[in-house]
């Protein structure tokens, strides 16, 4: 039995005596875990992008995922978000939501947000308007045209601006922001969707040292209230934020542990250094 399956079948010891099952905005995290990948395999024209991958992520965790090019990191995120269907295996969000049976929009609506490496914002709209457009609401044409911001929506936007440290830029066109600021704005747009799990793909690529440090502070502030999976190549950044690191290699988990554990692992050293 893999850890992911065991996690779904048994209550976490800390919660076993709690009595009532805990629900988190429709996601059952009563066993502590929020994402369960078990024995996931994906092949593309004979190439195994994922090879019996199993992974367990706890609710509120900030998990860093590293690995050389071709290790399966992007394909893993594609499976979680419904872009790619696994050939074998199961993927559950909480105890009951089978991700392999849902479409990409349905998965996003359940509370999984994904940020790609290149920021995508509405360049000709202000920072505030970007967050307004991103809020979780009925996106059909007529309701959108007739939408008015109520007090709660304005409060959410203000709080999000504070979180991503862009309150002073609220009325600035998004196209005029620095690269790092655009990255933070896109994260803010994801937060407006009220996600439970955030997938962040190389979020500090191209940032200045100062922007990278501020991003580390942002991610650490989000952990606990949100679950984050950060895929990153910048090992210094990973060291700043990681409590637990997963190393992928050839579509499987090669190692897991603290950054100190990972950097001392001979198999990991061989994979990264080619020895």
SSE map:
Elements: H1 3-9, E1 23-24, E2 27-28, E3 33-44, E4 47-58, E5 62-66, H2 73-80, E6 88-93, E7 97-98, H3 104-110, E8 112-115, H4 127-134, H5 141-145, H6 151-163, H7 179-191, E9 197-201, H8 209-222, E10 227-231, H9 235-241, E11 244-249, E12 252-257, H10 259-263, H11 266-273
Parallel strand pairs: 5-10, 5-11, 8-9, 9-10
Antiparallel strand pairs: 1-2, 3-4, 3-6, 6-7, 11-12
Helix pairs in contact: 4-7
Quick overview:
With about 280 residues, this protein is an alpha/beta fold. The protein has 11 helices and 12 strands.
- What is the C-alpha radius of gyration, as a whole number of Å? 19 Å
**If you average the pLDDT, what whole number results?**
87
Side-by-side strand order of the widest sheet: 8-9-10-5-11-12
Order of helices and strands: HEEEEEHEEHEHHHHEHEHEEHH
Ends apart, CA distance between termini: 33 Å
CATH topological fold name: Rossmann fold
Dominant shape: globular
Bin the strand percentage.
Answer: 15-25%
Q: In the CATH hierarchy, what is the class? A: Alpha Beta
Q: With helices defined by DSSP (H or I, 4 residues minimum), what is the helix count?
A: 11
CATH superfamily: P-loop containing nucleotide triphosphate hydrolases
Biggest beta-sheet profile: 6 strands, mixed
**What structural class results from the helix and strand content?**
alpha/beta
């Amino acid at each position: 039995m893999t850890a992911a399956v065991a996690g779904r079948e048994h209550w976490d010891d800390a919660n076993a005596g709690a009595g009532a099952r805990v629900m988190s905005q429709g996601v059952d995290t009563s066993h502590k875990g929020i994402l369960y990948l078990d024995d996931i395999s994906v092949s593309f024209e004979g190439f195994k992008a994922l090879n019996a991958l199993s992974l367990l992520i706890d609710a509120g965790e900030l998990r860093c995922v590293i690995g050389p090019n071709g290790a399966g990191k992007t394909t893993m995120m594609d499976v979680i978000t419904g872009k790619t269907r696994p050939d074998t295996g199961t993927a559950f969000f909480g105890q009951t939501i089978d991700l392999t049976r849902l479409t990409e929009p349905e998965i996003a609506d359940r509370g999984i947000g994904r940020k790609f490496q290149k920021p995508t914002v509405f360049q000709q709209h202000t920072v505030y308007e970007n967050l307004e457009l991103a809020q979780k609401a009925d996106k059909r044409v007529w309701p959108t045209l007739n939408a008015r911001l109520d007090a709660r929506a304005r409060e959410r936007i203000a709080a999000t601006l504070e979180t991503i440290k862009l309150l002073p830029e609220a009325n600035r066109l998004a196209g005029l922001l620095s690269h790092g600021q655009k990255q933070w704005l896109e994260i803010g747009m994801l937060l407006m969707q009220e996600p439970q799990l955030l997938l962040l793909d190389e979020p500090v690529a191209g940032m200045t040292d100062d922007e990278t440090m501020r991003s580390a502070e942002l991610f650490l502030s989000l952990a606990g209230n949100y679950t984050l999976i950060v895929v990153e190549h910048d090992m210094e950044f990973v060291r700043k934020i990681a409590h637990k690191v997963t190393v992928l290699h050839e579509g499987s988990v090669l190692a897991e542990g603290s950054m100190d554990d990972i950097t001392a692992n001979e198999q990991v050293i061989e994979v990264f250094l080619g020895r």
